[in-house]
UniProtKB/TrEMBL annotation:
PANTHER family in UniProt: CYCLIC DI-GMP PHOSPHODIESTERASE PDEF (PTHR33121), SIGNALING PROTEIN YKOW (PTHR33121:SF70)
Pfam families membership: EAL, GAF, GGDEF
GO MF annotation, one: cyclic-guanylate-specific phosphodiesterase activity
Alphabetical UniProt keywords: Membrane, Transmembrane, Transmembrane helix
InterPro entries, sorted: Cyclic-di-GMP_PDE-like, EAL_dom, EAL_sf, GAF, GAF-like_dom_sf, GGDEF_dom, Nucleotide_cyclase, Rev_trsase/Diguanyl_cyclase
SMART domains: EAL, GAF, GGDEF
Entry annotated with the keyword tRNA processing: no
Protein's UniProt name: Diguanylate cyclase (GGDEF) domain-containing protein
Domain EAL: 613-866
Amino acid sequence: MIEHHRSSESGLTADVPRPPVRSEVSPRRRRIFLGFSLSVLLSGILVSLLASLWLPFPREPELLFIGPLLAVGFLLVEQLTIDVDAKRVGWTISFTEIPLILGLLTAPFEVVLAANLVAGLAIQVRKRAASHVAYNAGVLCWEIAVPFLIAGVCSEAFGAAVPLWLCAGIGAVSSSLISCGCAVAALYALGNGMRVSAGLLLGGRTLVVGLLNTSIGLVGYELAVNTRWGWALVAVLMIGVLALYRAYSGLLREQRDLEALSDVSLRVARSGQHAARVLSDPDAPAVSAIGEQVSVDEWEPVAERIREQLNATRVVLRLSLDPRGEVSTLVAGGPQPEEMNTEGAALLRECPLLQLPGTHVRSFRSVDAPEEIRRALGRRGAHEALVVPLRGTNQLLGAIEVHDRVSRWRGFGHADIRLLHTLASHLATAMDNRRLLARLRHDAYHDPLTGLLNRTGFREMAAEALQDSTAVVLRVDLELLTTVSEALGYAWGDRMIVAAGRRMREYLGTHVPVARLEANSFAVLLRERTEGQAAEIAASLRELIAEPYPLDRLVVEATAVAGYVSSVPAEEDAEGDVDVLLQRADVAVRAARNGEDGVRGYVPSMGQIFLRRFQLVTQFRQALESGQIEVHYQPKVALPGKRIVGAEALVRWSHPEYGRLSPDEFVPVVEATGLVDALTEFVLERALVRIRDWLERGLRLSVAVNLSVRNLADETFPERVREAFDRHGVPPGLLTFELTESSVMADPDRSLPVLRRLRALGVVLAVDDFGTGYSSLAYLRQLPVDEVKIDKSFVLGMGTDLSDMAVVRSIVELGHSLELSVVAEGVEDDSARDQLVRMGCDTAQGYLISRPLSEERFESWLWARTTREYPKGAPELGETVLRVN
C-alpha cells in the first residue's frame, strides 16, 4: 500500500485513492511500481537540478538561517493535520502550502528543498515507511522544484506587471496538484486506477484546499511584513482557520461515522437474512456449525468496512462461534500475520491483547507497552493496535483488532476509539441475535430430546423431496414405553427414546431424514426406494430398536412395529400430501400391531379407519345424550400449602363398540366437523353444576374447561356463558377457560374480542401448554389472560434436563413479572414438586396428586385424600378449606 506523508501538502493524502488492502499486489505490479518509483526519484532530481541552475530569487547567505525554521514549519503543519473521511474518500487537510509560500517569498530554492526533504524523510522514518522512500523522495523534490520554476517563469515573463506574491502563489498551488497527480499515477502503477470522474473530483478538491491554504499564507506574510503588530493578527487568523478546519472535520467525521454504522448494520442485516435462509433448512447441521459456516463468510465485508472506516492497515475479527471453543479468524487487509494461523480457543484465552475485562476499547502502542504486549504486536507486524472484545450474554464471542492507522502520523484518536466501541457493540448484539436465531430455527424443526427432526421439520423435508421424486414414508413405533415410564419414571422412558433414535440414525446414516413425531413414534423418509426395499428397511429397523435396552442395572425388553406407504399410490389425488402419507403410515402401524411380523405396508383396504372416524362423528350427539361421554376431573393444588384450589375438566368417551376412546382420537374429529360447540357446552354445564354443588357444601373450588378454535371464533359464546352463570348462580371467578396459543392466533381478529368479553365477565383465562408455541413469548402480552400453564413436557424433564429446568424457571419468572398465576402440569414426583416450590410456582397438577377421576371417584378422593380446615374452628362461619394429606 502506498503511503507518503507529503501528499498532504495538497490537502489530500497520496493514499486517498489507495488500492484495497486485502487485494494482494502481484510480483509483476511490484516491479512496475519499483520502476515507477525510480522514475519519479530520477525525474525529481533532474527537475531540482534545473531549478538550482536557474532561479529568479536572490541567494544571500544571510537567508540560510531560514532553513531550520522552514523545516520546523513543515514538521509542525504535519502534526496539525486533520483527517477526514467522507463517503469512503480519505482526506488529510494540512497547511503545508503555508511554509512553502513563505519559502518561495523569502528563501533560496536549495534551502526550501533541503527543509522539505529533511522534514519529509524524518516523518517517513518515524512512520517506518522505508519501502517507499524512493517514491516519496522523488515527490518531495517535485513538490519544491516545480513551484520555484513556475514562480520564476511567471516573474521573468511578466516582470513588474505582476506582483511577486502572485507568482509565488501560483507555484504553491501547483505543488498541491503535483502531489495529487503522483498519488493517482502510483495507484495506476499498482493496477488500482480510479475513474476519470473520481480523478477530476479529487483534483478539484485538491485545488480548492491548495488555494485556501496559499491565500492564508500570503495574507499572513503581508500582514507580518507590512503591518505593525501584524504577527499578532496572523496568529489570530491562524487560530480561526484552525478552528474552522477542526469544526468542519468534526462534522464530516460524524457524517462518516453515521454512514459506517448504517453500512455495517445493513451488511449484518443482509448477512442475517442469508443465515435465516440457510438455517431454515430442516435437515441443517448443528447450530454451531451453521453459525460458523454463515457468519464468518458473511461478515467478511463487515471487517473490510471497519478497516476502511478507521483507515487501518488491517482489521482482525476473531469469532468464537462454536460451543466447543473453536475460534475463527477473519483478516481484512494484509498480509496475514503468522500468529493468525493459530487455531483453537487458546488464542482467545492466552493472547495478552485479548484478555480484556468489560467491553471497553484498549489501545496498545509498541513504544510504551510492556514487553509482553510489544512481543504480541511484533508477531502481528503492527506498531499500534486497538482491541475490543465482543461480549454477549455472559460469554466472550470474540474480539476485534485494528492495526496501525495509515493516513495519520500520530495514530488512532479518541473518535476512532468511540467509533470502534459502537461498532463492536453492534457486532456483539448481531452475533448474540444470530446464535439465538439459530437456536430458535433449529428447535423449530428438531426434537429437543433426540435431536432428530420433529413433525414440522419432517413435513418440510418430505414435501421438498416429493416435488422431485418418489419416496416412501416409514413409521416405526416403540412399544412398552408407557409401562417403562410408569414403573421407572419418565426419565427412563426418555432414555429409551434417545437410544432408539440413535440406533436408527446410525443404521440409516446422516443423509436419510429421521424424525421423532411424538412420544414413541419415529418417521423415516426413503428417497427413490421401492416398496420391497422399504419393507426390508422397516423390518431391519424394527429388529434394531426392539433389541434390549440396558437401563442402569436393568435390561428392558422392548418391541416395535413399523408401517410404510409409498408416495405414488395408484390413481389417487393426494399422492403428494405429506400429512396423508403420515396418516396412512400410521394406519399401517396400527395394522402391524395385529400382525405376526410387526411390519405392514399401507393398502387401500386399510382405509376403514376413515369409516371409523365417520362413525365417531355421526354417533357423537347420541353419545352425549346417552351418557357415553363423561367429564373427569384432575385436581389442582396450590403450592406450597397443598390446598385444593380446583380441578380441570377432562372429557372421556366410553364407546360401546370401540371401548374407551382417547380424547386425542375423537376431539380433533369433533372439532373438525363443527360439533365442538356441543361438546364445550356439555362440559361447561357439568362443570357449573359441580361448582354449584361444592358451593352449597362450603367448598369454593374452581373448574377449568378447555376451549377450541371454533369457540373463540363464535361471537355469541360470551353471551351464552353469561346466561349459564345466571342460570346456575355461580360466581364467574370460579370458572377457568384454558386455551392454546395456536387456537387464538388461528384468527386473532375474531378470537381476541371474544377473549376480552369473557375476561370482562370475570372468567379466569389461562394459556395451556405454554412454552411449546414458537412465538408464545411474543404474543403473551397481547392476550387478556390471568394464568399460564407450563407444558408437562418441560416439567417431566426437569429432573434430567437442565435446559427444561431453565425453561420452567423462566416461565415462572415471566408469568410473575406479568402478574400472572403459573400452573405446572405433569407433576409426577416429590422432587419436581419441591423444585417448583423453590421456583415460586403457584399451582401444581399431575399424577403425584391424582390422575383424572370420574365425578364419583373425584368426590371419594376429596373425602379420602384431603383434610378439612374451618375458619376459627367453626364450620358454620365460612367456607371449608381442603388440603391434600
